[in-house]
């Protein structure tokens, strides 16, 4: 009983620490606020003026689910950089040498990531509403879409902390960040997949980002959901996204906890 | 009573045998110095003792608990201060200490009180509410050190606590470490500086290639390792006279730098003292400009112990 209480308490302290850090970094907060605004305006109006997404459909309605997912991927990169910095400075070593619950650091880190991601999603949704994006399928479907986004965020956050402890260096981690670009670009975030060359199209169809974006479009009732014979993940986007999340969590939760719990 | 023991520790990283049968026995309540060049295995040894690094072979205990089998018990009794200041740069000094206090399961009020106490005692009260990124290198190290003291440990591991610090900060850290020991802690510190080990430690183990190649009290080690006498004289004729005198004192032939009018000679006798050398020179009729009796550098220690020069310590960061 004491062990569980301490475990939760330790995890909560790590969350507290990360959020405290954020409070001291007005730059990071400004970035988090500006990011959705800038993206909605940039992509919504610049790309939107040239990209046709189907008869009479509003590009910003098409775009918002994609930007939600893209925001999540970028947030996860930030978390990897943070963990890599902490590892490099020896913060992780110090925490690992302390009598705290072994799972406190990874659960605390992913927990605070989730809180930050929730705030970012709320901001993005508000910005979306301002530019004409709407959720058309009622409260339950809308809540399910946001739930799915947060689940995806949580799963990816576990990849981020695992990679962060491996990289051990803020600068290197920052350089790895742009590698997530193909993940968001070779997908249906910005443009319909149909027009892509065969190889890219195959990658885009099986990209978990595409599945998640399609799932959100379906649940929000936004344009861009494939009709007719789509590849399995895009024909069953909610199921595919849940499967991806389950797979990522099953692999990276044990790997990350091991990284903190065992000597190496 | 030994509070930290290590028998035949082995660990390989790829092609590097970081620990190659390292033995240690650290008596409780003392400062124990692990001296060696970069890459000697000091950090790996400390990390293994702090339950962070797994061992390929050998056995280590802290306060009687096996490091591999009872890591939770070990962690309850140790603190680790690594080579970098493991602090949250964006948080203030007080917040850093408070968070560590909470992680050691102190209540809110206790954690707050303890943070204030330590900041005052170790002269950081004025900077307590500034973010750590505005601290000087010495202040960071000091904060890093005292964050290990929030709940006092039985054993404190300090991995190169003064590497990269200016001499004044180094002195401050030394004072802090001395004060820790008066409170009953055992300190195991690693260092590349013989002077640091000599000033702080009651026992020194010299480490090279993952093994202890010499150990003893600083006095014993110095008797074995000797030191150097450096003399600067006024005129070229003095060089010859002083050389003869130094040769008579040490039995060794001095190296002479004619341009700078300098002589340098190794000595091994523990009885060698600065006044003794000055008296010897004056008796020979030389009035030296400068005389220094100094400990050997780590390079010279390795030359003496292994017959090969030590790997040069990495440039000070």
Q: Please give the alpha-carbon distance between the first and last residues of chain A.
A: 29 Å
CATH topology of the largest domain in chain B: Rossmann fold
Structural class of chain B: alpha/beta
> Strand share of the residues of chain B?
25-35%
Instruction: Count the domains of chain B.
Output: 2
What is the spatial order of strands in the main beta sheet of chain B?
Answer: 6-7-8-3-9-10
Summing up helix and strand content along with how strands pair, one would put the structural category of chain A as mainly alpha
Low-confidence stretches of chain A: none
Number of beta strands of chain A:
0
How much helicity do the residues of chain A have?
Answer: over 70%
Which architecture of the largest domain in chain B per CATH? 3-Layer(aba) Sandwich
Walk me through this protein's architecture.
The complex is a heterodimer of chains A (264) and B (317). Chain A has 12 helices and no strands. By secondary structure, chain A is mainly α. Chain A has one domain (2-261). In chain A, helix 2 crosses helix 5. Chain A is globular. Chain B folds into 2 domains: 2-223, Rossmann fold (3-Layer(aba) Sandwich), CATH 3.40.50; 227-294, 2-Layer Sandwich (Alpha-Beta Plaits), CATH 3.30.70. In chain B, 36% of the residues lie in helices and 26% in strands. In chain B, strands 6-7-8-3-9-10 form a 6-stranded mixed β-sheet, sandwiched between helices. Chain B has a 4-stranded antiparallel β-sheet with strand order 2-1-4-5, with helices on one face. Chain B has a 4-stranded antiparallel β-sheet with strand order 12-13-11-14, covered by helices on one side. In chain B, strand 7 (155-159), helix 6 (167-182) and strand 8 (186-191) form a beta-alpha-beta unit. In chain B, helix 5 packs parallel to helix 6 (167-182). The longest helix of chain B has 16 residues, at 167-182. The model of chain B is unreliable at 311-317 (pLDDT under 50). Chain A binds chain B through residues 6, 9-10, 13, 16-17, 20-21, 24-25, 88-91, 93-100, 262-264, and chain B through 47-48, 50-54, 68, 71-72, 75-76, 78-88, 90-91, 95, 99, 102-105, 131.
């Amino acid at each position: 009983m004491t062990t569980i209480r301490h475990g939760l308490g330790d995890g909560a302290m790590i969350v507290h620490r990360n959020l405290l850090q954020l409070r001291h970094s007005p730059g990071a907060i400004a970035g988090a606020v500006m990011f959705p605004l800038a993206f909605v305006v940039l992509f919504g109006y610049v790309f939107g003026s040239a990209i046709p997404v189907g008869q009479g459909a509003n590009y910003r309605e098409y775009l918002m689910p994609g930007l939600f997912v893209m925001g999540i991927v970028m947030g996860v990169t930030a978390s990897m950089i943070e963990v890599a910095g902490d590892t490099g400075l020896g913060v992780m070593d110090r925490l690992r040498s302390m009598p705290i619950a072994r799972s406190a650091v990874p659960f605390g880190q992913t927990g605070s990531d989730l809180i930050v991601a929730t705030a970012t999603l709320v901001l993005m949704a508000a910005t979306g509403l301002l530019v004409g994006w709407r959720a058309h399928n009622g409260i339950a479907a809308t809540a399910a879409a946001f739930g799915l986004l947060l689940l995806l965020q949580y799963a990816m956050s576990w990849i981020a902390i695992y990679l962060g402890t491996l990289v051990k260096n803020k600068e290197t981690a920052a350089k790895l960040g742009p590698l997530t670009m193909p993940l968001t670009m070779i997908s249906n975030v910005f443009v319909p997949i149909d027009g892509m060359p065969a190889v890219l199209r195959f990658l885009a169809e099986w990209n978990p980002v595409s599945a998640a974006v399609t799932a959100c479009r379906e649940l929000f009732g936004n344009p861009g959901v494939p009709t007719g014979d789509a590849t399995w993940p895009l024909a069953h986007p909610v199921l595919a996204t849940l499967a991806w999340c389950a797979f990522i969590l099953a692999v990276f939760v044990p790997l990350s906890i091991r990284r903190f719990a065992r000597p190496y | 009573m030994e509070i930290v023991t290590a028998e035949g520790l082995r660990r390989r990283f790829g092609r590097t045998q970081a620990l190659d049968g390292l033995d240690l026995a650290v008596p409780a309540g003392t400062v124990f110095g692990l001296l060696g060049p970069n890459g000697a295995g000091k950090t790996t040894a400390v990390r293994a003792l702090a339950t962070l690094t797994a061992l390929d072979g050998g056995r280590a205990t802290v306060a009687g608990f096996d490091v591999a089998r009872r890591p939770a018990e070990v962690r309850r009794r140790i603190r680790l201060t690594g080579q970098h200041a493991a602090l949250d740069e964006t948080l203030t000094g007080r917040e850093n200490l408070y968070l560590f206090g909470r992680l050691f399961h102190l209540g809110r009020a206790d954690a707050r009180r303890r943070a204030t106490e330590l900041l005052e005692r170790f002269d950081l009260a004025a900077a307590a509410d500034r973010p750590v990124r505005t601290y000087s290198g010495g202040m960071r190290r000091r904060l890093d050190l005292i964050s290990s003291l929030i709940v006092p440990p039985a054993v404190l591991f300090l991995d190169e606590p003064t590497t990269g610090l200016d001499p004044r900060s180094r002195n401050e850290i030394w004072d802090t470490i001395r004060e820790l020991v008066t409170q009953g802690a055992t300190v195991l510190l690693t260092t590349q500086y013989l002077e640091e080990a000599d000033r702080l430690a009651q026992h020194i183990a010299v480490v090279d290639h993952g093994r202890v190649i010499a150990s003893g009290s600083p006095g014993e080690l110095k008797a074995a390792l000797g030191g150097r006498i450096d003399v600067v004289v006024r005129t070229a004729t003095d060089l010859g006279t002083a050389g003869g005198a130094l040769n008579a004192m040490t039995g060794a032939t001095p190296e002479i730098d004619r341009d700078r009018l300098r002589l340098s000679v190794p000595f091994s006798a523990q009885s060698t003292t600065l006044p003794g050398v000055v008296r010897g020179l004056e008796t020979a009729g030389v009035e030296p400009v400068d005389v220094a009796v100094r400990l050997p550098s780590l390079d010279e220690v390795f030359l003496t112990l292994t017959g090969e020069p030590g790997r040069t310590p990495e440039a000070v960061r």
